[in-house]
């Protein structure tokens, strides 16, 4: 009798231990993959469309002056979502090729042109997710005496002297100046500047401390729709493009989760994503055929006409020497 009781106890004890080992093994084998990025810098729907095998880990400490995406790679990161201006901050040897042939074959000419502007090393390791044009945001436009209202030259209107918030990017500003044949004299742009502040551009305009700002559409579209004092211009010469891209430091799978990408640009999320100022890396004609319902008053901005969109451009990655030459050119003007 005692022997039988002792046996049952031993059986239960060892059964519990085995169960714990089993559960521990399951937790390790089911450990989720990690997507990392800065909140509000990309469409939130991309996180919402995550499959159950993934989790989002936001990047913090972005206020630090010496912030670098490179430092985030020291933490668990299977997929990184970031702005294209930071691509060169990623050591090429830390990235893996993203194999997504099904997605890449449907890229638009704009997307292919953007990828061609990357070095061959980065080209296969960067996957464009979404794109948003740079625009000019105005406050109380009707009260401003604006010249050349459909062109980038509108920024030289006398009523905007010392009243525009420009991005802190000589590269981007020089590319705009060259588009309107303002070749090497950038003092004209500088004289119109209130300040150079990417991060707080919207706040400058909404608060009334500046009358206009140059910023990506996605960063101001919510305020644009809610605040009747605001209006926006996508110039007829086209505009620089702001790309949201993916990079993979340690994605364990040989192939990219294409179903996730398809879900993000599928029927459930597409209208919301486009209404936030983002466009897919595929042809706009495909988007128009789907009859995306966006606010009528901003339709030409959210889904630009082909004639304007085809004039938009991406900024290639610069070499170290090219960056130095550009900075010298800007500072001496």
Secondary structure topology:
Layout: H1 2-29, E1 33-37, H2 45-48, E2 54-58, H3 69-72, E3 79-83, H4 101-104, H5 109-116, H6 120-123, E4 126-139, E5 164-166, H7 170-179, H8 187-192, E6 193-196, H9 201-206, E7 212-216, H10 221-226, E8 230-233, E9 241-247, H11 258-264, H12 270-275, H13 284-289, H14 299-302, H15 306-309, H16 320-331
Parallel strand pairs: 1-2, 1-3, 5-6, 5-7
Antiparallel strand pairs: 3-9, 4-7, 4-8, 4-9
Structural notes for this entry:
This protein has 333 residues and is α/β, with parallel strands linked by helices. It has two domains: 33-131 and 243-298, Periplasmic binding protein-like II (D-Maltodextrin-Binding Protein, domain 2), CATH 3.40.190.10; 133-240 and 319-331, D-Maltodextrin-Binding Protein, domain 2, CATH 3.40.190.10. 36% of the residues lie in helices and 16% in strands. It contains 16 helices and nine strands. Strands 1, 2, 3, 4, 5, 6, 7, 8 and 9 form a nine-stranded mixed beta sheet that branches. It is globular and about 60 Å long. The model is unreliable at 1-6 and 16-29 (pLDDT under 50).
The overall pLDDT average reads 86
Q: Helix share of residues?
A: 25-40%
Question: Which shape, going by the Cα principal axes?
Answer: globular
The counted number of beta strands is 9
Major sheet, described briefly? 9 strands, mixed
Quaternary organization: single chain
What's the number of helices? 16
Secondary-structure arrangement, i.e. CATH architecture of the largest domain: 3-Layer(aba) Sandwich
Count up the domains. Answer: 2
Point out poorly predicted stretches.
1-6, 16-29
Which structural category do the helix and sheet elements fall into? alpha/beta
CATH topology descriptor of the largest domain = D-Maltodextrin-Binding Protein, domain 2
């Amino acid at each position: 009798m005692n022997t039988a009781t002792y046996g049952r106890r031993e059986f239960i004890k060892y059964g519990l231990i085995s169960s714990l080992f089993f559960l521990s093994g399951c937790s390790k084998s089911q450990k989720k993959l990690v997507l990392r990025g800065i909140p509000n810098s990309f469409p939130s729907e991309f996180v919402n469309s995550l499959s159950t095998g993934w989790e989002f880990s936001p990047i913090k400490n972005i206020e630090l002056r010496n912030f670098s995406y490179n430092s985030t790679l020291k933490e668990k990161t299977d997929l990184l979502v970031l702005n294209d201006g930071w691509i060169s901050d990623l050591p090429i040897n830390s990235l893996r090729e993203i194999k997504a042939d099904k997605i890449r074959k449907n890229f638009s000419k704009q997307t292919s042109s953007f990828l061609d502007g990357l070095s061959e090393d980065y080209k296969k390791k960067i996957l464009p997710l979404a794109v948003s044009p740079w625009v000019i945001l105005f406050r109380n436009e009707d009260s401003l005496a604006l010249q050349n209202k459909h062109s980038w030259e509108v920024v030289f209107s006398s009523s905007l002297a010392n009243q525009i918030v420009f991005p802190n990017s000589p590269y981007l500003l020089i590319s705009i100046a060259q588009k309107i044949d303002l070749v090497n004299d950038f003092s004209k742009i500088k004289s119109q500047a209130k300040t150079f502040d990417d991060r707080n551009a919207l706040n400058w305009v909404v608060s009334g401390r500046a009358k206009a700002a140059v910023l990506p559409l996605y960063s101001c579209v919510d305020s644009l729709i809610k605040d009747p004092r605001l209006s926006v211009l996508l110039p007829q010469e086209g505009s620089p493009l702001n790309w949201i891209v993916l990079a993979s430091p340690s994605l364990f799978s040989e192939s990219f989760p294409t179903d996730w990408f398809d879900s993000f640009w599928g029927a459930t999320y597409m209208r919301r994503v486009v209404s936030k100022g983002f466009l897919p890396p595929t042809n706009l004609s495909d988007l128009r055929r789907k009859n995306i319902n966006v606010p009528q008053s901003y339709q030409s901005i959210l889904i630009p006409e082909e004639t304007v969109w085809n004039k938009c451009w991406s900024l290639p990655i610069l070499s170290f020497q090219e960056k130095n030459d550009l900075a010298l050119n800007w500072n001496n003007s």
